[in-house]
Specification:
This protein is of the alpha+beta class. It contains three helices and four strands. It has helices at residues 39-47, 51-56, 77-85; strands at residues 20-24, 35-38, 58-67, 70-76. The chain has a four-stranded antiparallel β-sheet with strand order 2-1-3-4. Helix 1 crosses helix 3 (77-85). The longest helix is centred in the middle third of the chain and has 9 residues, at 39-47. The chain starts with 19 loop residues before the first strand and ends in a 10-residue tail after the last helix.
Length: 95
């Protein structure tokens, strides 16, 4: 027997790493302006932060994602780390 679901539970579990995402609350030079990039780039940038900045950072996605059983568009701390664990392998040709 198969159970059908609709609504948030029916979301595709594949992550569109090319969707727009903003990484905010991260110092950039003399300011902390949010940077908009692909989700993949934003998560990789988050990985390069020190622990204090990782803890303060906020990631906002263009479309809702399901991470750790919760669905949303705004992620912090452990939720961003969970996304990082799902990153596709970096293409060595991209440098």
């Amino acid at each position: 027997m198969t159970e059908a679901t609709w609504g948030d539970g029916a979301m595709n579990s594949d992550i569109d790493w090319r969707m727009s995402a903003a990484l905010a609350d991260v110092p950039r030079g003399d300011s902390d302006v949010a940077e908009v990039a692909s989700l993949e780039r934003a998560v990789r940038d988050w990985l390069g932060l020190d622990a204090a900045h990782k803890a303060a950072a906020t990631l906002t996605t263009e479309h809702p994602l399901r991470v750790g059983g919760a669905t949303g568009t705004t992620f912090t701390g452990a939720a961003i780390a969970a996304l990082a664990e799902q990153l596709p392998r970096a293409d060595p040709a991209e440098g």
